[in-house]
Amino acid sequence: MKYSFLSLARNAFSHHRGWMPAWDSPVPKRHYDVIIVGGGGHGLATAYYLAKLHGVKNIAVVEKGWIGGGNTGRNTTLIRSNYLLDTNARFYDWSLKLWETMSQELNYNVMFSQRGVLNLAHTDAQQDAYIRRGNAMRINGIDAEWLDHKQVEEMVPLLDSSERPRYPVIGGLLQKRGGVARHDAVAWGYARAANALGVDILQNCECIAIKQESGKVRGIETNQGFIGAGQVGIAVAGHTSQLARMAGFTLPIESHLLQAFVSEPVKPIINTVVTYGAGHFYMSQSDKGELVMGGDLDFYNSYAQRGNMPVLEHATACAMQMFPFISRLRMMRHWGGIMDMTMDGSPIISKTPLQNFYIDGGWCYGGFKATPASGWVFAHTIAHDEPHELNRGFNMDRFEHGRTIDEKGSGPIPNAQ
């Protein structure tokens, strides 16, 4: 069923009882050409582009929970491509371009809003670093604009831009094409579009072992039995290292919790995404009026989806330094997502030592915004058994050969994330 104004009006006359399920719930086949483990945005996008662009039709996406219940729905929905280094800048800007047409391509409103992303600077050194990053972005054809103190004040009038805060604002780097999207709608949109192309979406189907023979993958063992496969790709976010161990190798990845929370709804007060450069904090406002806020990692290894109070207290303190009125708001809810942190802050989208077994992981803080490009290049890598030009630098052997991509936004020191 194509979603449109006419279909909405037609179903309104039947009290919306005529809508069909967005995707089927099939019984697993005995064998697929390609199995993607992980039914989040990355896995579903991979299946969608495999079917649409590469003609692979016999595909299954295996998800241990339900669609939209994993990391896809556990982030702060930010989208940007404001990276310094060429490898990341080209990849994330391709992702941003795919975001700009995603709702039309999937026939599903993912509520993508290009309201801009503003990184606040508080010191001369930070200003120099942001201006340098902005120049590098423009060289790569990416929009970037330096705002002085007065321009920041005009753009975000409720921001405390006086001399009173501990770290006064002196300017900011703005990417106007950045923004936000509804996170779980992205997974639903890709699931619906992939299913329409013949992809089987297998929910509540947990992968518990990777089966291999003579150095080549044969399929996966699940809680619903063995499923054979010619090729297997994993896109499981914070559980990447666990799935890799099932295949017999280890990755330079640590899993950490990243928390986020929202306030009660208020009238429109902020029309962009603001990041607080003096602390690891960022905030935007949802279409419902809630302030969506996030901070830094809980700095211990964990696969849990519940965090500790000190990180929330730190993030809230940052919020009140930026916007003192937040002290009068109530917090409505909070959640945690599991981040798979590589040691250089950049992802792994790669072939592996196991033949016909592929990895898409190590997304650190950048997983949600990378969703469309991640699926796009991962599909290419699986279909051609070699990386696309855009993810050639994200091979896992870069750690073995010392070709790490030391982008800011990570701690490239083991056990110090």
Secondary structure blueprint with pairings:
Blueprint: H1 5-12, E1 31-37, H2 41-53, E2 59-62, E3 78-79, H3 86-100, H4 102-106, E4 117-121, H5 124-139, E5 145-148, H6 149-155, E6 171-175, E7 179-180, H7 183-196, E8 200-202, E9 207-213, E10 216-222, E11 225-234, H8 240-247, E12 253-263, E13 273-276, E14 281-285, E15 291-301, H9 309-322, E16 331-342, E17 348-351, E18 357-361, H10 371-384, H11 398-401
Parallel strand pairs: 1-2, 1-11, 2-8, 4-13, 11-18
Antiparallel strand pairs: 3-7, 4-6, 5-6, 9-10, 10-11, 12-15, 12-16, 13-14, 14-15, 17-18
Helix pairs in contact: 2-7, 2-10, 3-10
Describe the protein in words.
The chain is an alpha/beta fold. It has helices spanning 5-12, 41-53, 86-100, 102-106, 124-139, 149-155, 183-196, 240-247, 309-322, 371-384, 398-401, and strands spanning 31-37, 59-62, 78-79, 117-121, 145-148, 171-175, 179-180, 200-202, 207-213, 216-222, 225-234, 253-263, 273-276, 281-285, 291-301, 331-342, 348-351, 357-361. Strands 1, 2, 8, 9, 10, 11, 17 and 18 form an eight-stranded mixed sheet that branches. Strands 5-6-4-13-14-15-12-16 form an eight-stranded mixed sheet. Strands 3-7 form a two-stranded antiparallel ribbon. α2 (41-53) packs parallel to α7, α2 (41-53) crosses α10 and α3 packs across α10 (371-384). The longest helix is centred in the N-terminal third of the chain and has 16 residues, at 124-139. It is globular. The protein starts with a helix and ends in a 16-residue tail after the last helix.
